[in-house]
C-alpha cells in the first residue's frame, strides 16, 4: 500500500518506520528542514513506562484555583475566548473521576509495556546513538500526603506488573547522592528500577535514517496545507511541493492535528499544553543526578543525557501560541538550581519551549476517522517519546487488520468523534 505519513515528530517517524517494515511504500511529509524540530526536540527525555497515570484525576480538583490565580503554579490556566479550549476543559473535568483515572492508568500501562518491549527490539536491531540509558527513575515527594498517595498508586500498579519500591528520605539520598542538598525536605520517594531515558531528538533523527534505509521517502521542508477529499476518502495531501497521492494517510501533526482535522470537519479534543526545558551542557559528576528524578512538588523532571542534564517542567494551558514566557523559564531555572545547585553551570543552560499535544483523558488517538483511508496517531500529551513505539505498532496492526497486542479500542478516536 502507498501510505503518506503527515508530520515528522517522534510519532510520525516511528509510524513511518513500523509501516515500512510491514512492506508499505511510505512517504513522510515534514515542514521543517529535519525531523523532530518541534515538540519532539528537547523534551524531558524520560522513557517513563510505569508513570502513565493521567493528569485528569480527582486529586487535581482542589488545585484548580491555584492553577487559575498563581503565576508560580506548575500548572497554569489562562482562559481564552476559544470554544475549543472550553470543550477540552469540560472533558478534562469529566475525566477527573477515580474510576476513569484507574481505568486509563491500566490502559496506558499496557501501551507503555508494549512500547518498552518494542524499544528494546529497536535498540537491539538498529545502531541508534541517542544517549539511551536504563538508569531507573526516582520520584521524590516533599510532603507526607503526596508520598502516601504515591505509595497507594504503586500498590495499585503492582497488579499490572510494575516493579516499584517505596523509599524513605535517607534511602532516596543513598540511591541518588546528588539529592543531598534537599535530603532533609524529602518525605519519601518511589523508585522504579526499570525506567529509561534518552534524547528524543537523536532517537527520532536516527530512526528516520533507518526508515529511509527501509525505503521511507522523507519529504522535508514540505508544508502540508490541506487534504483533497471526496465524500468518504482522502485522495491527496496538498503540499508546498505539489500533491501527494496515496492509498492511506496518517495524521501525526502533534497539536496541529486538531486544526488540520477540523478543516475536514473531523473534531478531536487535542489541545496544546505548553512546557519548557533546560539543558545543562556539562553536567557535573557528583552534582547532577545519574538516576532520572522527578520532583513531585515542583513537577519538574531531570534526566541525564550523556554529558548533559535535561530539566523539564511546566504545564501551561494558555492557548495555541508557542511563545516562550521568560518568567516561566526563570522559575524553572530557580527550582532546578535550588534542587541540584552543583549540577553544572546554570549560566550556560539552553532553554526550549514545546507544545504537548494533549487529550483530556491523556490517552492518544490511534485509529481511523470517518474518511475510510485517513488515520491518526496523535494526542500523546506528556508521554509521546514513551508511548511512540507501541502506538506505531498499534496503528500498523490496525491498518493491516491484524490481531492487536492489547485492547486497541481504548485509543480509538471514535470515543470523541462519534
Ligand atoms: C516540556 C516537555 C517535556 C516532555 N517530556 C517528555 C518526557 O520526558 N517523556 C515523554 O515520553 N514525553 C515527553 N514530552 C512529550 C513529547 O515530547 C510529545 O508527546 C511528543 O514529542 C509529541 O510528538 P508528535 O510527533 O506527536 O509531535 P511533534 O513532535 O510536534 O511533531 C509534529 C510534526 O508535525 C509537523 N507539522 C505540523 N504541521 C505541519 C504542516 N502543516 N505541514 C508539515 N508538517 C507539519 C511539525 O513540524 C512537527 O515536526 C514532553 C513534552 C514537553 C513539551
UniProtKB/TrEMBL annotation:
The lineage of its organism: Bacteria, Pseudomonadati, Pseudomonadota, Betaproteobacteria, Burkholderiales. It is an enzyme of class 1 (oxidoreductase). NCBIfam families: PRK00711.1 (NF001933). GO terms for cellular component: cytoplasm; plasma membrane. It comes from Paraburkholderia tropica. It comes from the Bacteria. InterPro entries: DadA, FAD-dep_OxRdtase, FAD/NAD-bd_sf. Keywords: FAD, Flavoprotein, Oxidoreductase. This is D-amino acid dehydrogenase.
Amino acid at each position: 500500500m502507498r501510505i503518506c505519513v503527515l508530520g515528522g515528530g517522534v510519532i510520525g517517524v516511528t509510524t513511518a518506520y513500523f509501516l515500512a517494515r510491514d512492506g508499505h511504500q511510505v512517504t513522510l511529509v515534514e515542514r521543517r528542514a529535519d525531523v523532530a524540530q518541534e515538540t519532539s526536540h528537547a523534551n524531558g527525555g524520560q522513557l517513563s513506562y510505569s508513570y502513565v497515570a493521567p493528569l485528569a484525576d480527582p486529586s487535581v480538583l482542589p488545585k484548580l484555583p491555584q492553577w487559575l490565580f498563581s503565576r508560580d503554579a506548575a500548572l497554569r490556566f489562562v482562559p481564552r475566548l476559544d470554544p475549543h479550549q472550553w470543550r477540552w476543559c469540560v472533558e478534562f473535568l469529566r475525566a477527573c473521576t477515580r474510576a476513569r483515572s484507574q481505568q486509563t492508568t491500566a490502559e496506558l500501562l499496557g501501551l507503555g509495556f508494549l512500547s518498552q518491549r518494542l524499544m528494546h527490539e529497536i535498540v537491539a536491531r538498529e545502531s541508534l546513538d541517542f544517549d539511551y540509558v536504563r538508569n531507573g527513575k526516582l520520584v521524590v515527594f516533599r510532603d507526607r500526603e503526596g508520598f502516601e498517595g504515591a505509595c497507594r498508586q504503586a500498590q495499585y500498579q503492582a497488579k499490572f506488573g510494575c516493579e516499584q519500591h517505596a523509599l524513605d528520605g535517607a534511602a532516596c539520598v543513598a540511591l541518588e547522592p546528588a539529592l543531598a542538598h534537599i535530603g532533609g525536605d524529602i518525605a519519601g520517594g518511589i523508585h522504579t528500577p526499570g525506567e529509561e531515558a534518552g534524547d528524543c531528538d537523536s532517537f527520532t533523527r536516527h530512526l528516520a535514517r533507518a526508515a529511509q534505509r527501509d525505503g521511507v521517502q522523507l519529504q522535508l521542508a514540505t508544508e502540508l496545507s490541506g487534504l483533497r477529499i471526496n465524500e468518504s476518502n482522502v485522495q491527496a495531501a496538498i503540499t508546498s511541493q505539489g500533491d501527494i497521492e496515496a492509498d492511506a494517510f496518517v495524521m501525526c501533526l502533534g497539536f496541529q492535528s486538531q486544526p488540520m482535522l477540523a478543516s475536514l470537519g473531523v473534531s478531536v479534543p487535542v489541545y496544546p499544553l505548553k512546557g519548557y526545558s533546560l539543558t545543562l551542557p556539562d553536567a557535573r559528576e557528583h552534582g547532577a543526578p545519574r538516576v532520572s528524578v522527578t520532583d513531585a512538588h515542583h513537577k519538574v523532571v531531570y534526566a541525564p543525557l550523556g554529558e548533559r542534564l535535561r530539566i523539564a517542567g511546566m504545564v501551561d494551558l494558555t492557548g495555541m501560541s508557542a511563545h516562550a514566557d521568560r518568567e516561566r523559564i526563570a522559575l524553572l531555572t530557580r527550582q532546578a538550581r535550588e534542587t541540584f545547585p552543583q549540577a553544572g553551570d546554570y549560566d550556560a543552560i539552553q532553554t526550549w519551549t514545546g507544545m504537548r499535544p494533549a487529550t483530556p483523558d491523556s490517552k492518544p488517538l490511534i485509529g481511523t476517522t470517518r474518511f475510510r483511508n485517513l488515520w491518526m496517531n496523535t494526542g500523546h500529551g506528556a508521554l509521546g517519546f514513551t508511548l511512540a513505539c507501541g502506538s506505531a505498532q498499534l496503528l500498523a496492526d490496525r491498518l493491516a487488520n491484524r490481531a492487536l497486542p492489547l485492547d486497541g479500542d481504548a485509543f480509538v478516536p471514535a470515543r470523541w468523534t462519534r
